[in-house]
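The record is given unchanged here:
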Amino acid sequence: MHPRTSFVRPSNGCAAGNAHREWKCHGPYRHGHEMRGTLHLPRTLAIAVAICSTLPLSGQVDPLRAEAYFKEAQAFCDRDGGRLWGISLCGPMVIADPATGTIATNQPAPEGPRPRNLGFANATTKWGGVEWSTFAWKVLASFDKPSRGLLMMHELFHRVERPLGLMTNDGQNGHLDTLEGRYWQLLEWRALARALGSSGTERTAAVQDALAFRFARRQLFPAAAANEVLEEIREGLAHYTATVITASSPEDAASKAILQLADFAQRESLVRDFGYASGSAYGVLLDAWSPGWTRQVKGPMDLAERLRIAGGIAASGLESRETAERAALRYDSTSLRKAEEKRDAEQKAKVTELRKRFVDRPVLVLPNASGSFSSSGITPIPGAGTVFPEVHVTAEWGVLQAAQVLRPDDWSNITLPAPASVQGSTLEGDGWTLKIAPGWVVRAGNRPGDFQLIRNVPRQ
């Protein structure tokens, strides 16, 4: 199906509907701002996928440029011809700007209300009973053509991920914010980069090292195996797909995967970001050792284990900590550990302050709702949940814009530092603003000084 662009001006019915998944945010970059202080990679490769846009957006969607973007995506789909996954990745797409209410679609837009969070994040959303890939206009329009292609193909894969049986729940990967979790993950990536840049026995040896580092990490964190696989499948396969479909050759895909590993290693947090780099790297290596492997993947399979089998690598010996420690010396492990120990001390101080802000002091608790966030800077607070940065939520209870929020591990609510005043329909606190919808009211919470937002039920 070739793009047919529809341009829709603001309507009064754009405040209803629900996002298909809980908080959606693909990738570590937000308009590319998080690239400061990282490796200065080419923009095309460093901005592998962009994810959320939670800043106030402005600028009306340009229908001519939007049509050109739809054609760019269609060209990649046509070139792939469904070979990678046995299905075309192209389908309904919408580009939106929430500030102006303008949208562009590649097919006629459904009648009725639009999804609430349209244009705040690059994501997938049910609209008119159909799954759409949605894009934030300001993000998409700020990218060059190669970066835009990566982003669009990433989101288009998410649209078909459920039909392919590859949609997974979020993994609980707080261990990747610890000293040992990060240290062994970064060593694994260094070995994967060496494998991607080599061939023959050198590649096999590097893959063995990567697997040994992976085993070492999972021995320290018993729940890691199951939780990491969830992210490597859901986000990793999307990242892999975007990388290989937009690459000019297998060698180009491998080069991109190497640069992605280096760039992601500089991220402030690996808790959600790691799956992108790992999935892309293992996928590209599987292309070399097991052509057609994508047609065999069903559900949350361990890509590293599949690569081990494809490469004929024996499992015996890989689980030895001594083997991993010896191999680590080949990847400048001494300098890496020193850097990670410094980072760990700084992170513990950060968590202490976040605990005071979101746990120890009075808070405002909001009902659970879908929304968008930036994955760069996510910080787990052991025993309390995870702090997410740059959050936008549009829900039945109102609209929230926040620099940070706390979500418990069961995602049952949204927690903010308590406001100084709870009067009126617009509340402000430390780094957040909440516009309360009619029919909702703030009441006292479970602890002295706490508040909660609840539905206002008239007394009988």
Notes: Confidence is low (pLDDT under 50) at residues 9-57. Residues 349-455 form one domain.
